[in-house]
Amino acid sequence: MEPILRAEKLTKRFGELTANREIDIEIHAGEIHAIAGENGAGKSTLMKMLYGVYQPTAGNLYIDGEKMERWNPTIAREKGIGMVFQDFRLVPAFTVLENVFLSLHSAGWKINKKKLRDEINRISAEYRLSVDPDTEVWKLDLGQRQHVEILKILLDPQTRVMIFDEPTSVLAPHEVQAFLQMLSGFRNKGYGIFLITHKIDEILAVADRITILRQGEHVCTFERRDGFSQQQIISAMMGNVPVNFELERPECSEENEAAALQLSLSGVSIKDDHDQLILHDVSFEMHKAEILGIAGISGNGQRELAEAIYGARKLQSGILSANEEDISSTDIAHRIRLGMRMVTEDPIRDNVVPTFSILENMALVGLDPIYRHGDMDWQAMRSQLQTHSEVKTLRVPQAERIAGTLSGGNLQRMTFARAVISRPRLLIASYPSRGLDIATVHAVHKTLFRLKKQGVGTILISEDISELFTMCDRILVLSSHTAFGPYCVDACTPNEIGKIMLQGENAHE
Ligand SMILES: Nc1ncnc2c1ncn2[C@@H]1O[C@H](COP(=O)(O)OP(=O)(O)OP(=O)(O)O)[C@@H](O)[C@H]1O
From which residue to which does the signal peptide run (predicted)? Predict the structure, then answer.
């Protein structure tokens, strides 16, 4: 059977860097083709070439066997290729209907809004997409926004192939299952699906084929009919290096614990960006050198709580103290002096300068400044960076690389390493393992345990309940505008925490 799309020897260079080298890949109707590989392996670049966002440096593309002389997203859509990007392409102030209308209109489809509303409702019901056509996009959570992106593709009658770039990284765990079922539904309807994911259980659940990339090269393609295992996939991704993902929960010495920062919140209320109360009357005491998990479906006040503790958002009421000092009305600078550090959800938005190199970003926060004749001594700064073991264990790319051109996972590696290098006493880490490959997730977890041993506490925000149970001493759950717990991980089950995440206080009834 002729593939819908076939790429032959696709190569993409960015200056000196070869992101993809001579890659052959194809997609047929009615199959799910997973793309896996470590951070920076070239997965997104390859998919962006297939959708025409990037022009290949070399290589050819064929649609239904016909060689494409010109290729860009407009032609790709005409030929039936659609893509859901990691960062959505939606206008927040527009409604769902207006966004879908805009997208179809730009693809050349003339459809009236009344008919489109009926179509949105019909397709939403068919695939269980939870979207109301008349809601503005800014009011939707990430999972719902993803549904709008999918609607845009499904409503385009040309669509035959859908490309998803790490779609489940924005979903809550309970949404992932439904998403994978939806993908299987698309496959059964005859769509060809490309799925980039770091989650091996997702690959095992739905993929018919899996292509592994490493350092820009095609390593192998497994077929479901021949069978493939988790171990085979990991070995292919990592190049047969011995891997040991075991972790041992450490104890902190009394001496280190005595020097640690201890945080407590009493009756704290916080507003969100729309001036609505998002958290009400939150009280808890963190132990010294504790890893305290913050569980909850995203959008339940995690970001606001993290920012309020770090001093980037003011408290509406209540008291925040550190080692019994009331710091409620102090600014970020004071909290940084106390030793608080933050790994944010969205580094490019919050605290990375995209046009600066990794080294320059590290020099802003993290590294100690070294001067020579009044100027920053970059040579010495570079050497200083290399003395930090995290740069190696987290495999941070070369210091000269520009932050804005890093892959999502490499950027995450850099920001996490930077927070660790900057001598934290208390780390606030929002989804630190999101978008990371399996080996790097392990390196992050190991680092958090090492910090704990040294007396550094961590507030670990995550939706991944198994990660929270592996890493945390206790877990606080945010739900229905309030905080439940903290619950000691040895005295509760993942099921109980999951239930509180979904039902709040009703979970106890
Ligand atoms: N516009 C660009 N300019 C320069 N380099 C780029 C650009 N886009 C990607 N790269 C580089 O190409 C390489 C592959 O990046 P890509 O985003 O494709 O990786 P990935 O496998 O999707 O990684 P991740 O799992 O971290 O998302 C990386 O080294 C990245 O820094």
Answer: none
φ, ψ at 5 (rounded to 5°): -130, 135
Cα of 100 vs centre of ligand 1, distance in Å, is: 29
Ligand 1 in reach of 405 Cβ (< 6 A): yes
Per-residue pLDDT of 195-239, as tens digits, reads 999 999 899 999 999 999 999 999 999 999 888 888 888 888 888
Instruction: State pLDDT tens for residues 334-351.
Output: 999 999 999 988 887 788
Place of tokens 């050819």: 60
Q: What is the pLDDT of residues 171-181, one digit of tens each?
A: 877 788 888 99
Tokens (6 digits) for 124: 């939403």
Say how many C-beta atoms besides its own lie within 10 A of residue 282's C-beta.
23
* Atom 5, ligand 1: residue with shortest CA distance: 405
Residues 194 and 326 grouped into a single domain = no
Which protein residue's CA is at the shortest distance from atom 4 of ligand 1? Answer: 405
222 and 95 belong to one structural domain: no
Residue 396 CA to residue 410 CA, distance in Å, equals: 7
ipTM for the assembly: 0.98
Q: Please check whether residues 96 and 226 belong to one and the same domain.
A: no
Residue 245 inside a domain? The answer is no
Q: What is the pTM of this model?
A: 0.86
Cβ–ligand 1 contact at 410 (below 6 Å): yes
Quick check: CB of 95 below 6 Å from ligand 1? no
Q: Are 341 and 424 in contact (CB under 8 A)?
A: yes
For ligand 1, the distance from its centroid to the CA atom of residue 431, given in whole angstroms, is: 20
169 lines ligand 1 (CB under 6 A): no
Rounded CA-CA distance 245/259 in Å is 30
> For residue 5, what are the contacts with CB-CB under 8 A and spacing of at least 6?
26, 27, 50, 61, 62, 63, 79, 81, 161, 192
State yes or no: cis peptide before 486, omega within 30 of 0.
Answer: yes
The alpha helices in 346-493, defined as continuous H runs, are 347-350, 358-364, 378-387, 389-393, 408-421, 438-453, 465-471
Q: How far separated are the first and last CA of the chain, in Å rounded?
A: 56
User: Containing H/E element for 112?
Assistant: none
User: Parallel, antiparallel, or unpaired for β 161-165 and 81-84?
Assistant: parallel
Q: Is the CB of 43 under 6 A from ligand 1?
A: yes
Nearest-atom number in ligand 1 for the CA of 401 is 31
Q: Are 170 and 116 found together in one domain?
A: no
Contact 179, 171 (CB under 8 A): yes
Structural domain including 466 reads 260-339+424-508
Domain assignment present for residue 168? The answer is: yes
